[in-house]
């Protein structure tokens, strides 16, 4: 009987897996703006929100440095 090693299929394991799921309620207008922005810039909604989080942190850091 021969035993073959089968390659694993599927996505490769991430070094930093995304396990947190957050729900968000938006108005129809806000949701439309978000979808439109993502589409216009070739991004997913998740990418737009992640970028927004990074920009907020960058703004907070720059304000903190200015106040020193």
Short summary:
By secondary structure, the protein is mainly alpha-helical. The protein has helices at 28-40, 45-66.
Report on the structure:
The chain is mainly alpha-helical and 68 residues long. The protein contains two helices and no strands. The chain has helices spanning 28-40, 45-66. The longest helix is centred in the C-terminal third of the chain and has 22 residues, at 45-66.
Question: What features would you highlight for this structure?
Answer:
2 helices, single chain, 68 residues
Topology:
Elements: H1 28-40, H2 45-66
Structural class: mainly alpha
Largest sheet: none
Beta percentage is: under 5%
Overall shape: elongated
Given as residue ranges, the uncertain stretches (5+ residues, pLDDT < 50) are none
Distance between the termini: 74 Å
* Helix-residue proportion: 40-55%
Annotation, overall tally of beta strands: 0
Number of distinct helices? 2
What order do the helices and strands follow? HH
Q: What's the average pLDDT?
A: 90
Over the alpha carbons, how many angstroms does the gyration radius reach? 20 Å
